[in-house]
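TL;DR need structure tokens for one chain.
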Amino acid sequence: MKYKIVLNFFSVIVILIVGSALYKQFDYEHLKFEKPALAVVYSITLILSIAFMIKKTKK
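>> reply
TL;DR here they are.
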């Protein structure tokens, strides 16, 4: 099966916002997130938005 990546404006904006928020939450000095529960929500949202961009072709 072939997969097709469909870039639309909404998905790209969501990925950029959630990705940057997740990046800002990470503390590189201690290698952990400042708010772990919020980081889990951000991660799930980021994964789902990427999954919605990848679609199967119907051939």
